[in-house]
Structures are given as C-alpha cells and as structure tokens.
UniProtKB/TrEMBL annotation, chains A, B:
Protein name: Methyltransferase
Enzyme nomenclature, EC number: 2.1.1.-
Alphabetical GO biological process terms: methanogenesis; methylation
Organism the protein comes from: Roseovarius indicus
InterPro entries hit by this protein: MttB-like_sf, MTTB_MeTrfase
Keywords: Methyltransferase, Transferase
Amino acid sequence: MARRARSRRDTGAAAIAAPPSPFIRRSLPFFDVLDEETVVKLEGQVDWILQEVGIEFRDDPDALRIWREAGADVSDCRVKAPADWVRSLCAKAPKEFTQIARNPERSVTIGGRNQVFAPIYGAPFVRDLEHGRRYGDLDALEKLVKLAYMHPNLHHTGLVIVEPCDIPVSHRHLDMLYLHMSRSDKPHLGAITEMSRAEDSVAMAEILHGREVMDKHCVIMGNVNTNSPLLVDKVVTQAIRVYCGRGQGIIVVPFILSGAMGPVSTAASVTQAMAEAMICCAFAQLVRPGAPFVLGNFLSSMSLKSGAPTFGMPEPVISNYAIGQMARRAGLPLRCGGSLTASKIEDAQAAYESADSMHSTMLAGSNYTLHAAGWLEGGLCTGFEKLVMDADRLGSYQKVLDHGLVVDDESLARDAYGEVVPGGHFLGCGHTMRNYTEAFYEPKLSDSENVESWEDGGSKDMRVRAFERWNAMLEQYEQPELDVATDEALREFVARRKREIPEAWY
Amino acid sequence: MARRARSRRDTGAAAIAAPPSPFIRRSLPFFDVLDEETVVKLEGQVDWILQEVGIEFRDDPDALRIWREAGADVSDCRVKAPADWVRSLCAKAPKEFTQIARNPERSVTIGGRNQVFAPIYGAPFVRDLEHGRRYGDLDALEKLVKLAYMHPNLHHTGLVIVEPCDIPVSHRHLDMLYLHMSRSDKPHLGAITEMSRAEDSVAMAEILHGREVMDKHCVIMGNVNTNSPLLVDKVVTQAIRVYCGRGQGIIVVPFILSGAMGPVSTAASVTQAMAEAMICCAFAQLVRPGAPFVLGNFLSSMSLKSGAPTFGMPEPVISNYAIGQMARRAGLPLRCGGSLTASKIEDAQAAYESADSMHSTMLAGSNYTLHAAGWLEGGLCTGFEKLVMDADRLGSYQKVLDHGLVVDDESLARDAYGEVVPGGHFLGCGHTMRNYTEAFYEPKLSDSENVESWEDGGSKDMRVRAFERWNAMLEQYEQPELDVATDEALREFVARRKREIPEAWY
C-alpha cells in the first residue's frame, strides 16, 4: 500500500527549487462521504438539470451551431441534452493526462490518484508586511512567479498570481505568460478573457514547446468560470474552442455562492456545479474528442449578517468531499477548494479557514488545486506571507497523501523493542538512528522551540517568519535556463502583439 | 443518511450556554485509511507486543496480584498475556456509554458514532492578551470553567483547564472539582494523580449525583497516561481500581513522542499505543467487567533541529486516521488528537496546526476529545483567546459530522429552478426564503466583511475579537442552579479534606 519515500531533503539554496516530487501520487485511499442511494439521487438531479432545465449558451453562435449539429435540443440559446449522451461525451475526456512542462522533470499528471497544487489566481490586490495592501503590478507578479517556481511544495505556477494592474488589460496576458515561461520552468496556465488572448497563449506555448510536442501533448491549459446559474457565455466556449481545438486542456469552474448563484443548499449547488461543468465537458469533447478537461467546483457559503461569501466553513468543506466522490464516479479530473479564507490578513482566522478548506480539498482528491497558496480576502488579495505560509503546509498534505501510513518490517521496528526496556527511550536505538532523518516532515515556518528560545529570538509570529523567508528565497533566486532562440522568439512575439493590440485599460 | 437539523440558534446571552446539541451524533461516514491486509499486519504487531514483549506494571503489588490471579504470565513486573484473551477482556468494555451530567440535558454519550469535545487539560501556564503569559491560578481556572460551561461548542469541561498553581498540590483536586461541579452543569473529569485524590473525586461525584445514580451510571471519569514505552505505573492502575471499581469511566492514554517514547515510526507508535491501552482496558475489565473505558492515543512528531515535539504535522494527522480505524475494529471508544500546536501565541501557526490536528481528529471519529480548545505551546499553556477561537471552529466540525451532506427533496430545491432564470440569482426565491436562516454555520469570530468595513472597525485581527468575546461571555455568566444542600455537602467535604490532607506544594 503506502510507499516509503526517500525524497531529497530541502536543505538550502539549491534545493529550494527541487520539489519532493513534481506532483502528488496519492497512496492514501479516497474518502467517500455519500452512500450509493444518496449519490444516485444527486446524479439524478444532475441529469434532470441537463435534460429538463437546460443550460444557456450565450453570445457565441458557433457554440450553438456545434450543439445543433451534434443533435442537441437548442431553443433560443438554451441547450437541453439527454444525460446519457452528455455522460458518454464526458467519457471521451481522459481520466488523467499529463501537462508537459518545459523542464520535463516538472511535468504534472492531472486526474486519477494524482494531485497538483498551484497558487492563487486572479486577485487584483497584493499585500505584504513591508508595503501593506496595494494594487498588484508586474513587479509583484514577477516576484510571485519566482516564489511559486522556487517553492518545493507548489507543482504548478497557475497564471494570474496577482493582476499586473500597471499593464493595460489588453496586453497583460502577454507579459504574464512571458514571466511564467522565462522565470520558471514549471507548468502554468494560459489566458482566457478574450478569444484572441487565448490564441496568443496557445501561440506562445507553441513557441516554447515546439509544434511537434504541442501536437502530441497538453502543454498549456485555460481556467474559466461559467456564469452560474446555468449560463455559459462566450468566454467559456471560445476558450474551449481555442484550447481544446489545439488539443490543450481546459478547466471549467462554476463559482457558486449558495443562495446567490445557486440554491441556498449544498446538495443542490453541488449538482448544479456538476451539470454546468459536465455540459461544458461534453461541448469540449464535441470540439475535439479526447481533449483534456478538468471539472471544477468552487462553492462558498454566505454570512447571514452581510451576504458576504465565507470560506473554510462546514458547507464548502462537505461540498469538497461530496464533489470529490461525484467526480471520481464521473471519471473526470477535478479542481476544487484551495487554501481559502475571508480574512484580510495572515491571522489565525486566515489559517483556520485555509487549513479546513485545504485539508478537505486534499482529502477530497482535488486533482488540480488552484488557490492552494496565497489567498486572502475572499480572493481579492494575494499575500506574499500567506503564499509561503500556505505552501509550507502543503508539504504536510503531500506527505499525508503520498505516504499514507507506511507499514512494512522497517516501520514496524520490532528490533527496537529488543533494545529498549520499558520506561526507557528510543532516542539512540538502531532503528531510530537508521530512520530519524526521514521520519518527520520538516516545516520551514513552524516554530516548535520552547517559549524561552522563541522569546530570545524576538517573539516572531508566523507572519514575520514568512516575511523573512520569502525575502530570503528571492535573494537566492536563479532563473532557469531558457534556450536563447526560444527566448528571443517569445520576446518578439510579445513585442509584435503589443504593437498590434491597442492599449485598453478595461 | 444525513439528518436535517433544526437546532436552536446561538443568538444572545441566554443562548450562550445552550449547545446546538449536548454531543455529536455523527451521520458522516467514517474514513478508513488502511486496507484489510495492512490493518491485520498492525493488529499482528499489537498482539506480538502483548504476548511476546509484554508490558511492565510497576509499584502496585495489587495490580500484579490481579494479573496473577487472572492467569497472566507475570515475571517480575512484566505482564505477558495471550492477545486473544486481552481482546476478549476488552470486548467486555461497552462500545458506547453515557456519562450523566448533573443537568441531564448535558449528559454525553461516548463511543460508537458519538463525539464529544472538551477543553485543554493540564497546562501549568495561562495566557491572555491583557495579562500575557503567567502561571495558572484558581481565578483563571474559574474563568475557564465558566467559559467551557457557556460555550455552545464544548460538550464537556474536562478538569485541569489550567493548573491552579496558587493552591497546594495536595489540595488542588478538591478546589478544581468544586469549580466544575458548581460553576457548570456539564459533565467533567475527576483527579488521578494519587489514589486518595481519585477517591476524593469519586466521593464528591457521589455527593453531587447521589449514590443511587452513581451505582447505575457513569457520572465521572479519570484520564491517565501510561509511562510509554511499555510501562504502566501505579497512577494508572490505582486510578483504574478507584474509578472502574466504582463502575465509573477511565481513559488511558499512551503519550508517545515518536523516536523517544516509541520507535521513530508512526506505524510502530500506533501499535504500541494500541497495546498499552488495550492491556489497561483488559486490566480494567478484570477489576470490574463492563467498566467504561476509553482507549487513548496521543502521538506527536519531533523537530529534527531540537527534538522538540511538533503538532499538526502529517505524522500525527495520519496516526489519527489510522488509530480511529483500529479503535473501531477493537470496538473501543477512542480519545485522540485535539486542537494541538507548538506555537506560543494565537498566530497563524497555532491555527494551521490546530486545524489540521482537529480536522483529522474529528474525521477520525475520536469519541472523546480532550484538548479540543485552548491548547498552546505543546500543551504547556492555556490561551483564553485560543479557547474561544478553537471552540468557534468546533461548531463547524459539529455541523460537518452531524449533518454530512443533507440530500432530500427540500435540499435538492427543484422548485428554485422554476423561479430563477439562467444568469439570474436565487437571493429572493422561495427556496432561499424558506431555508436561508438555517443554511450556514454562523461563526462568531470570523470576519467576512470587506476590507473597508474591517478597517473601519479598527482592523481587529482574530485574537482581538477573541479577547472581546471571552470577556463579553464572562460578563453574561450566570451560575447554573445547584441544590443548596448538595452545595453545602460539597463545601463541607472540601473543607474537611483540606483539614485532613497536609499542604504539599509538589
């Protein structure tokens, strides 16, 4: 069952960029929270939404044409489709697939028993202990890309770790992609906000990886939200057409604040998310059978006081467990959860909420987890300290998932009981000497010393230690090598497209 | 499957003392992390320890006499016993039992699908935002007992929420018990440190509950640690003889810091804990067949830098899941985990570690959880803020466990989809209006407002809000009624015993 690991230890500058493994190969069993009768009832509701309620596809006549040609019931822009047909289309999507990184050692496999952690996506604001809260800019994004690249517990760098608000909206995707492609060699995402930006992303990926690799492999993915409830706009369908049309991956995520974009019920919101994502998966398979697809779920609860979204609460926790089981039954790779919180700063609230959210995310088997590190303020703000704090905890989750409970002759340690008498101690015994260096996860940011040592060191709380760590990491940053001609071609592409695309700030 | 709850909402002063329910009746399935082959291998190791290695019972000739008379292999003080026999003795312990509270509405059922949360136990120091870190005293303990009584998410008040260090050690148990009996009407524990103190605890419980109730029911329990590895001293055997001899409950907990009190391996430490606790359970059943017994496990990992214990790490997380499964197979109620951390203050480290520790504790099915709230500094310090912060999160866990995912016609909300158009919102629809007040857990200490509101409110972090909350709670405290004659009898008992027992400070 569980594997015994002999991973390299993260001990210094060189090791910072070396992950314990490029993604998680889970040995821990999955946790099924729903009995058969219940899950069948939920699937029945998914089918009912697909068949009887239908989902609207707006603003993209090509999408409606594709649906009509495939034989769906399309009335105005509402698509109703037999659930069996939708499920048979979804079955064409790979249960797991590999996203190739430009450094092959960093390629990740998404789906099945594999799990991948990526940083926060999409925040307009950024915060750190020295400069406080401010709009994100390209400088902040560059630092965050470097940190995501260097951090051993992040497998993937996402894309919009923060919005570079100092760059025109119409040019941002070019600068963002170039940062991910040049400052890191981990896999990342492409842009989706307009069809041309998705096309630029795919074009830059082709420059980076070469046409031949791209023809055969997934090298880039887009991540896109439906307009819940039950609405899929052209941002989604065009992104699917661009990415999947080129054999690349797409992640479609209904964001449902229960009571607003879905019924005020976790069960209903989960079924709605399944229906919205599955109809998009079916659409992707119509565009290109076998296109890599990740089924997303992003469910939040609500404060009764103000209607503000809340995170890390029991409703999204249970929705993570439930959606994990439903996605496994559907045979689709899953994105859900993350280290989510409504807290404005890196206080205990942020950590409690993030940990409960992420503990359930990882146990639920989320195959690709955006927002695994750095999220503050309901996703409006990226925290530099929060990024390395969350990521420090991700190493613990990776050990739980990778290793489970290792049970073999060595771990049962019978020889130790021949050496140690009752009431004695195992500190120096042979088994301990053979195993202690690999026995425990070594967090970087937890202080476990006694109170006197901690006070002597300045009574630093975790935020301060995190601030010191990310600054130290950046000082040790070394840019991964990139072929000079490729780099030149990427720069030329960016420069040319910036000349072609008018500057727009919204 | 999951139950639909219509619990009373905690809305004000009066409601503060009213828990959503006096204990958790779990509808969520259990999470089994071990396959059959692995769990059989672990049980084989437990049997090997019991039969071949043996466990020493020291300093209590009566305990050795009981073992010899029962037919165990006793050599010097090492007891070896056929595993089948130990398991058949353990089978005499109830799978679940009820501890009667003096207010019957607060009685708790321990074992099976039931889970009970209690505060930290045994810290010599106490900390709060106003007074900082200091030795515990009777005044602090009184406040903490009141808070544990008032908090809706704590089901049980434990005993030594902090050590009252201003009271002679030899008299402390009397004052502690009187506080729990008079300031609260929730169930609590008794003392164990010396045989006479256990006897005093049982005698006071008899005054409080009456002989007749006590003859028929568990009204008090002791919580005691083995001297791992493989050593059971007289504190344990005498506590078992006193509590179980009177038909009361006992919790026996091997505290194993892997690499010191057990091999540097989670698998071996879990089997050692099982063996140590099961031999004590067998002993308890020899003392009195059917005596309520809780099998404990308290496993910590270690910092490689200093050898200091660490908490909330992957090794204790996985041990919680594994021990939960093994305890269910053994048919014994379980105590494990808690909201544990090595942090000195209520920062993000404390919250991350506590949440991961407690999330795994609750999912593991720990039936009785000491240290569910208030723990800091590896258990050396009780935090007033930490107590209410942790307890706020316990309400979320209770909802996850009690409710699971509620799936029925109302929660599937099909009528809502008749009202809401694609791209619309569910805010005012009938289903939302019928359900929103009960839809979401309402934490007291999470701030989910936007950054402007939060800043307008003074940018208070969770510690500050927690400080304000526990002070507000104490202002609203009302002592639960206690029969005057009973109160008088308890006071007389305490006064008499203080005259009889010489003051001792160690």
